[in-house]
Write a structure and sequence with these properties.
alpha/beta; 7-stranded parallel sheet
Length: 431
């Protein structure tokens, strides 16, 4: 199959934009505290060595996608000790979250930009035997370079939004060329499956949502005990993974609740902790007092809003609270997975905007495993109801817990499939 004119045009435009995109990507990582050497991984310059044995390359865009494949990586490395695993992502936050969670022997790097230079350097060094893309990471040059090298391609948790699908369908010949190397695409919803099949991906099939395969949080008991001791017997609720525009709604609801419950504590966990200063200003505008986790402050008595502006502690806050409002559902960002709070046995509240997880939330609502709210007033009433009726909160949590399964057998089967694909490529002739 020959490249289309549109694909050639994309390559030319990427080549022109690459110097500017590279500078922006490197500077963004540097501002987040990433070292110069590691920031240049975005340009394909590796900072780790490739081990011996078949190598599976997982690429995930950000935190949620990277976390979703960690159980699969662990299971695969346990079952197949000779396999090498490389996990790439694009953000400093994702690197921080996975750094202490990757199994021994697995490597994290920042993913190369979608230009031929970065990709060539990356692929020459790592020589992956299988490329596994998580969710919607369909980069044309990456897909093309893997296909040219006969590196098998798999999509896990494949998700294609309506807008993205229609964009690809406008240029079917280019879509067919770019996606020609995809041999396996396990979709997280029927819509994505139909779209990928329409685009000619013959290996598309329904698959388990990896984000649902999560066990109970693995926490340091001393950290949990310390948080409980600091909180005392105060009532508490959590607003997690909030985005701009959502904190105002959450804080308005909390201020109403504090009128009747002055000892109530809100643990506010923004999706992006670097927004902490902006959020502190919002809290101060409401007249509520606050303390920040990043400064070492604890959940002391009298703290009305505890700003959890650190990474990797969300499971702790889920475990501490009987009620969680899950953000990304008032802001138009597509929602966030409810499986993690479900695994932590907490009652889940959310807004109406969750297009990226529409099937998932439909199941939660149908199973009476979550409650949907629409604004500050209904959020306030929902939290008040669950605080007044803890049996109702416990029932919501109990209904949600079975929806987040451990999935050991599922992970083992999927890991075996991926390992077989990688091992077959490693044994065959290739560049």
């Amino acid at each position: 199959m020959r490249p289309t004119f549109l694909f050639r045009l994309y390559q030319a435009l990427v080549a022109l934009a690459l110097p500017f995109a590279a500078r922006r990507a490197v500077n963004k990582l540097r501002r987040a505290g990433v070292s110069v050497d590691r920031a240049h991984e975005r340009l394909g310059h590796a900072t780790a060595q490739r081990g011996f044995g078949p190598l599976i390359w997982f690429h995930a865009a950000s935190v949620g996608e990277a976390k979703s494949v960690l159980p699969l990586i662990a299971q695969t490395m346990t079952e197949h000790p000779d396999v090498q695993v490389l996990l790439t992502s694009g953000t400093a936050t994702s690197a921080q979250v996975v750094s202490g969670r990757l199994p021994r022997g697995a490597v994290h790097q920042f993913g190369p930009l979608d230009g031929n230079g970065p990709l060539n350097r990356f692929l020459r060094h790592w020589r992956p035997d299988l490329c596994v893309l998580v969710e919607s990471e369909l980069w044309p040059n990456l897909l093309d370079q893997c296909a040219r090298r006969d590196i098998p391609l798999a999509l896990l948790n494949a998700r294609l939004s309506e807008n993205s699908a229609q964009g690809w369908k406008r240029f079917p010949a280019t879509a067919a060329y770019v996606m020609r190397g995809i041999t396996l695409a396990l979709c997280q919803d029927r819509r994505s499956l139909d779209h990928l099949r329409d685009l000619g991906v013959r290996g598309a099939a329904m698959g388990v949502n990896l984000k649902s395969l999560t066990g109970p949080p693995l926490l340091d008991p001393s950290a949990v005990a310390a948080a409980h001791a600091a909180l005392g017997d105060r009532p508490v609720w959590v607003a997690a993974s909030t985005h701009p525009g959502e904190e105002e709604i959450v804080l308005a609801a909390h201020k109403r609740l504090c009128a009747d419950r002055p000892d109530l504590c809100l643990i506010l966990v923004p999706r992006h902790p670097e927004r902490a200063n902006q959020i502190v200003a919002l809290i101060e505008q409401t007249g509520l007092n606050t303390a920040r986790r990043s400064t070492g402050a604890n959940l002391g008595q009298g703290i009305q809003v505890y700003l959890a502006d650190t990474m990797g502690e969300t499971d702790l806050w889920y475990t501490l609270s009987p009620i969680v409002f899950l953000g990304g559902s008032f802001a138009p960002v597509g929602g966030h997975t409810p499986y993690e709070p479900a695994a932590a046995d907490t009652a889940i509240l959310h807004g109406p905007l969750y297009d990226n997880f529409s099937d998932v939330y439909a199941t939660f609502l149908a199973q009476d495993a979550s409650v949907q709210v629409k604004d500050a007033e209904t959020l306030c009433e929902a939290v008040r109801t669950l605080l007044d009726h803890p049996a109702r909160a416990a029932r919501l949590a109990r209904n949600a817990r079975p929806l987040a399964v451990s999935g050991t057998e599922t992970l083992a089967r999927l890991g075996q499939d991926l390992y077989s694909m990688a091992a077959e490529h490693a044994e065959g002739p290739h560049d």
